[in-house]
Amino acid sequence: MAHHHHGAGHLAEMLDLDADVLHDHHRELIAWAASLVPEHPRIIDLGAGSGTGALALARHLPDADVTAVDLDEDLLAHLRHRASEAGLADRVRTVRADLDAAWPDLGPADLVWASASMHHFADVDSTLARVRDTLRPGGAFMITELDSFPRFLTDPAGVALEDRCHAELDRLRREAGMHMGLDWGARLTAAGFTLDGERRFDLELRPPLPAKARRYAQVTMQRMRHRLEDTLSAD
C-alpha cells in the first residue's frame, strides 16, 4: 500500500501546485462558472481530485454547497483537510464513488463541474446522460479539458526528451481507453445539451515565474519518470 500512498501524495501535491502556478487561469474559469449559477447553488465536482475546483467554487460563491466526488479516498481526505483549514468544511462535502459504476444520488444540481476528469470515464455518452439527469432544469455543466500537457525544458536535448516522454504517455493513455482530444462541444450537443459557450485558453508562463513553478516542474517530471520507468530506458 505504501507505494499507492506515495503516488497519491505526489498527485495531490502536483494538483495543488498546478492550481497555484496557473492561478490566473483558474480564477478566470471559476468566475465564468460562478456567472452561470443562481443564488444558493448546489454544485457537484465530478472527479474532484485534491479539491482545487471544489474549494475555489465554495470560496468564490459564499452561499454555495459543493459536493466533491472522487474514487480516491486519499485525495478526498486531503480535500477535507484543505476545506477545514479554509473554514469551508460546512459547505464542502465529499462522496467516494466509482462514477463508471452506478451513481449515488447526487442531484439536483445547479452546476456540475468536471475539470480534466471527463477523459477518464469509460463511457462518455452514458456519463453525459447521467449528468443531464443530475442537473436541475436550466442547470449548467462545465467541462475543462487539456489539449496538451505542461512542458518545462527549453534546451534542444531537453525538448527532444520531453517530446519522447509525452508521445509515450499519449500512447499509454490511448491504450488505457482515455478520451483525449474529443470534440466535447459536439458530444454535449449530441447528448441534448445546449452549448452556451466554448473557450480555449493558451497558457504560457513567462519569467519571472511564480515561486512554486520549479517545484511544480520537479513533481510533474518525477511523476512522468515513475510512469515511464517500464517503457523507456533510464538513458
Description:
The chain has 235 residues and is an alpha/beta fold. The chain is 46% helix and 14% strand. The protein is built from eight helices and five strands. The chain has a five-stranded parallel sheet with strand order 3-2-1-4-5.
* Sheet with most strands: strand arrangement: 3-2-1-4-5
Mean pLDDT: 82
Into which percentage range does the β-strand content fall? 5-15%
Order of helices and strands: HHEHEHEEHEHHH
Give the beta-strand count. Answer: 5
Structural class: alpha/beta
Low-confidence stretches: 1-8
Identify the overall geometry.
globular
Query: Whole-Å distance between the termini?
Result: 29 Å
Number of helical regions: 8
Radius of gyration: 18 Å
Largest β-sheet summary = 5 strands, parallel
Helix content: 40-55%
Main features:
disordered N terminus; 235 residues; single chain; globular; alpha/beta; 5-stranded parallel β-sheet
Question: Which helices and strands, and how do they pair?
Answer:
Blueprint: H1 2-21, H2 23-34, E1 42-46, H3 52-60, E2 65-70, H4 73-85, E3 92-96, E4 109-115, H5 124-134, E5 135-144, H6 156-175, H7 184-190, H8 213-228
Parallel strand pairs: 1-2, 1-4, 2-3, 4-5
Helix pairs in contact: 1-8, 2-3
